């Protein structure tokens, strides 16, 4: 109140553009600050927005715990980039299966993050597994132990889908084109199921049966396992081609714990022919 707002003149000089060799002109920007009353409110809004974007997720329910973080990949030291998903192996000393491609460590594909010990995962609704023309919609799925999957056939033809665990059939179901299967139990034992079809041996996918709370995320994305009972756990992250990550941890009530997970092959011994 009573103070006049001051007009501020700011001169911004741009550097020579190295690509066009055309100097950008100087610009004058006139900034009119808010009144003393309005400025603090705007500042508060900006700070709240920044905190919401960069900070932790919503807190867990009272008396429960949370672990969260980001999943990323680190390429092998000295390896060529596979960012386009089509990079070729050039190391003559390395044994590489025919047709193998470099991993894009910026987009390493689906990762299953789960907590093992202390609390079983919630089974909830059946996990949807979609069969598209020529492939499963995703290469990796996850469900809680004791849970179910629902297979949606959108391939344009009938298929018989079956799941194996250690060579034993867990379920087998015939699904007409455009139909959904009845819910199929994944069993009570944590581990991996392989999904196949009789009609096309190249149609495959993996189903991770999680022992505890879990999340399926893409590389670079954030995972959140929340409203977990306090206690000791093993945090495990699984990728179809990269070494698994395990972290022992203790979660305390009413606390948020951040653990970022980085997949890497740098510590693996080199395989020779």
Walkthrough of the structure:
This protein is mainly beta. The protein starts with 7 loop residues before the first strand and ends in a 9-residue tail after the last strand. Residues 1-36, 43-53 and 83-99 have low confidence and may be disordered. Strand 9 (159-165) and strand 10 (168-175) form a beta hairpin. The strands form 5 sheets. The chain has a 5-stranded mixed sheet with strand order 7-13-12-9-10, with no helix packed on it. Strands 3, 15, 18 and 19 form a 4-stranded mixed sheet that branches. It is 6% helix and 40% strand. It is built from 1 helix and 19 strands. Among the domains are: 8-54, no CATH class; 122-210, Sandwich (Immunoglobulin-like). The chain is globular, with a radius of gyration of 26 Å.
């Amino acid at each position: 109140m009573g103070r006049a707002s001051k007009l501020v003149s700011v001169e911004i000089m741009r550097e020579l553009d190295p690509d066009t060799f055309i100097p950008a002109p100087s610009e004058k920007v006139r900034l009119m600050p808010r009144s003393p009353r309005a400025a603090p409110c705007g500042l508060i809004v900006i700070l709240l927005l920044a905190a919401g974007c960069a900070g932790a997720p919503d807190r867990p329910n009272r008396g429960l715990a949370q672990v969260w973080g980001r999943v990323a990949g680190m390429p092998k030291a000295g390896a060529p980039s596979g960012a386009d998903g089509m990079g070729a192996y050039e190391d003559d000393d390395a044994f590489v299966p025919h047709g193998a491609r470099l991993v894009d460590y910026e987009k390493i594909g689906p990762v299953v993050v789960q907590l093992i010990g202390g609390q079983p995962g919630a089974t909830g609704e059946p996990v949807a597994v979609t069969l598209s023309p020529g492939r499963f919609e995703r290469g990796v799925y996850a469900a809680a132990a004791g849970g179910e999957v629902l297979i949606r056939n959108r391939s344009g033809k009938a298929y018989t889908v079956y799941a194996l665990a250690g060579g034993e059939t867990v379920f087998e179901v015939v699904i007409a084109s455009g139909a959904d299967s009845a819910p199929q139990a994944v069993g009570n034992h944590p581990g991996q199921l392989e999904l196949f079809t009789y009609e096309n041996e190249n149609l495959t996918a993996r189903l991770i049966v999680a022992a505890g709370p879990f999340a399926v995320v893409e590389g670079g994305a954030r995972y959140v396992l929340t409203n977990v009972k306090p206690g000791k756990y093993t945090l495990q992250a699984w990728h179809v081609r990269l070494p698994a990550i395990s972290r022992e941890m203790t979660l305390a009530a009413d606390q948020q714990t951040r653990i970022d997970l980085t997949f890497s092959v740098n510590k693996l011994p080199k395989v020779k022919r």
